[in-house]
Design a protein that fits this description.
- This protein has one domain: TIM Barrel (Alpha-Beta Barrel).
- It is about 45% helix and about 15% strand.
- It is built from 15 helices and twelve strands.
- The strands form four sheets. The chain has a six-stranded parallel β-sheet with strand order 1-12-11-10-9-8, with helices on both faces. A two-stranded parallel sheet has the order 2-7.
- Helix 1 packs parallel to helix 4, helix 7 crosses helix 8 and helix 14 runs parallel beside helix 15.
- It starts with a helix and ends with a helix.
Length: about 425
């Protein structure tokens, strides 16, 4: 049970979030994101995903609740309040408390051993892993993993949330779709990155058989989730699709009857692991396996931090529901603008080092922003300030960057 004093604290925080969500600017931001996702002609959108820097913005020491669930809710509420007070981006803040479906996933017959440092456990270090598929015979060990959907546990959690928040926030179930259906992350954890690169030359048939197996497992699980009726819409202003927000009136599909299907949802896919291979191998060993999954969804956001300089033509040609494309820090911004034109959202991820380094480089940030605004003129630009793993204890860096970008956007619209 959540203690009375924790319940009181949560309700106080929830009221603050509800008041923030009621401000007119939140609806303005929501409409701005919807216009962008519909390829209408809004001003460039600025979004912020603090990621690792959240531990500085809302440190564990600031949390007062001890009950694990109450502590998670407290963290979520304080993050929303922090957004309002310190991060003046275009992310709308909504009066919603989301409750994740409770899932328990088994293994695929083998276990990947991850080897990390204490620093990695704090999101500050590195790790490696011991891939279990070392020989062709190891492939035979693979089997479908068990998936348990805890209906009772999810309902209990939702009932508790409604008891705490119902008259203040909308309590909404959320199905935690994988952040990406790129498949190659699973591939390298099973086979190893270096070995995958070798396999492309020495064992291409085996590699494609392994990718086909992963594709089929993912497809089967998605079909099961749809059949069980546990999928939830991700078309809201607080639904994150990695390189953007999901707010759109184009989803769900026109024949939606309340039962969420894959075609009612956004999907995100990428292949950061194959960023160093050419377009032919990317198509042969990744894209052709991703496509049967991607095409089952309503809209697709493609790419993350990898450069797609040599792959735009492929993804534009083969992904009919493509709407947003990530332009990473190492991408050629002018080439991306030429390829994407006004047909897709240009989701630019600036190099976070400009504000994460011991000394920030706002002069470099200004130069990069000006260049991005210049080459994307006439397109649909979104500045996605992501991968900010630290702010060096200076949270004002985020606001300074966002305000700089907004100033330059205003100047570009006048010019």
């Amino acid at each position: 049970m959540i203690q009375k004093k924790e319940r009181t604290l949560l309700r106080e925080l929830a009221r603050k979030v509800a008041d923030i969500a009621a401000l007119p600017i939140q609806q303005e931001r929501l409409q701005l994101v919807k216009d962008l996702n519909a390829l209408r002609e809004p001003r460039p959108v600025i979004l912020s995903s603090p990621e690792g820097a959240w531990k500085e913005l809302v440190p564990e020491s600031a949390l007062l609740c001890q009950h694990p669930l109450a502590r998670n809710w407290e963290r979520s509420l304080r993050m929303a309040i922090c957004r309002h007070e310190l991060i003046p981006a275009d992310n709308p803040i909504l009066a919603v408390m989301k409750i994740n479906w409770e899932l328990r996933l088994g293994d695929w017959g083998v276990t990947t051993k991850f080897i990390g440092t204490e620093a990695f456990d704090r999101d500050e270090g590195s790790m490696t892993w011991d891939p279990p598929i070392k020989t062709f015979d190891d492939f035979k060990k693979l089997h479908s993993r068990t998936v348990e959907i805890d209906y009772e546990g999810t309902s209990r959690k939702e009932e508790l949330a409604r008891d705490v928040f119902a008259d203040i926030l909308e309590v909404r179930r959320r199905f935690p779709l994988w952040w990406s259906y790129g498949l190659t992350e699973t591939l390298i954890y099973l086979r190893g990155l270096q070995q995958v690169m070798i396999d492309m030359y020495e064992n291409p048939t085996f590699l494609k058989d392994l990718m086909a197996w992963i594709r089929d497992q993912v497809t089967s699980e998605l079909e099961m989730y749809q059949r069980e009726g546990v999928l939830t819409l991700n078309n809201g202003g607080d639904d994150v699709v990695t390189n953007g927000l999901g707010a759109t009136d184009e989803l769900p599909a026109d024949d939606f009857d309340g039962n969420v299907r894959l075609k009612d949802l956004w999907v995100m896919a990428e292949s950061q692991e194959l960023s160093g291979v050419g377009p032919e191998q990317f198509n042969e060993f990744a894209l052709q396996f991703q496509l049967p999954i991607i095409k089952r969804f309503g809209l697709c956001a493609y790419g993350c931090c990898e450069s797609l300089d040599l792959k735009y033509d492929l993804i534009m040609k083969h992904i009919p529901n493509l709407r947003r494309v990530s332009v990473g820090p190492w991408a050629d911004k002018a080439l991306a603008a030429e390829k994407l034109g006004d047909r897709y959202i240009y989701s630019w991820k600036p190099n976070p080092a400009a504000i994460c380094s011991p000394k920030p480089f706002f002069d470099l940030a200004e130069k990069e922003i000006r260049h991005a605004l210049d080459v994307t003129r006439g397109g649909h630009l979104q500045i996605m300030l992501a991968d900010t793993m630290t702010l060096r204890g200076q949270p004002e860096r985020l606001a300074r960057y966002i305000n700089l970008a907004r100033k330059l956007i205003d100047e570009s619209l006048v010019a």
